[in-house]
């Protein structure tokens, strides 16, 4: 049986996207996305919780995200969850959970941001993790 790994998020960028290039000159952009949920507790008090997500985009989509998105931008992100590890600059093993975006759609008021889908790169993830620049 084939599994499904699909995530849909709507939130706001916590910082401007960072654009890097792999050793093979493939663009990759990363940014953090905040999603906030609100509810009333048993006493009727409004509660709020914000979750932060690490988003990764590849190829032309990464370049467009860097060009058009900025801290605070509202976006719709569709992709898949990925867990991986890497060694930091001091040689320590780090673990990260991220969303590899297949589709990013900019939301917001007309004229504020370009309101069109960011083209998805059909080959959204590298074949080998050695391509990752971090």
3D structure, described in words:
By secondary structure, the chain is mainly beta. The protein is built from one helix and seven strands; from the N terminus they run ββββαβββ. The protein has a five-stranded mixed beta barrel with strand order 1-3-4-6-5. The longest helix has 10 residues, at 59-68. The radius of gyration is 16 Å and the shape is globular. 19% of the residues are buried.
Question: Can you lay out the helices and strands and say which pair or pack?
Answer:
Blueprint (H helix, E strand, L loop, with lengths): L6 E7 L4 E4 L5 E14 L5 E13 H10 L5 E14 L5 E15 L9 E2 L16
Parallel strand pairs: 4-6
Antiparallel strand pairs: 1-3, 1-5, 2-3, 3-4, 5-6, 6-7
Keywords:
mainly beta, 134 residues
Poorly predicted runs: 113-130
**What integer value in Å does the Rg equal?**
16 Å
**Average pLDDT metric:** 86
Global geometry: globular
Strand proportion, as a percent range, falls in over 45%
Strand order of the largest sheet: 1-3-4-6-5
The span between the termini is 33 Å
**H and E string:** EEEEHEEE
Largest sheet: 5 strands, mixed, barrel
**Oligomer class:** single chain
- Given the helix and strand composition, which structural class is it? mainly beta
Helix percentage: under 10%
**How many extended strands?**
7
Task: Please give the count of helices.
Answer: 1
């Amino acid at each position: 049986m084939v599994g499904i790994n699909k995530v849909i998020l709507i939130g706001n960028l916590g910082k401007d996207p960072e654009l890097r290039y792999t050793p093979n000159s493939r663009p990759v952009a990363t940014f953090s996305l905040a999603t906030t949920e609100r509810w009333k507790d048993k006493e009727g008090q409004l509660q709020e919780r914000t979750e932060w997500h690490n988003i990764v985009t590849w190829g032309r989509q990464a370049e467009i995200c860097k060009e058009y998105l900025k801290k605070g931008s509202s976006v719709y992100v569709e992709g898949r969850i990925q867990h991986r590890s890497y060694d930091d600059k001091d040689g320590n093993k780090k673990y990260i959970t991220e969303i590899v975006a297949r589709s990013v759609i900019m939301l917001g008021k007309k004229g504020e941001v370009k309101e069109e889908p960011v083209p998805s790169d059909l080959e959204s993830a590298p074949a080998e993790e050695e391509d990752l620049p971090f």
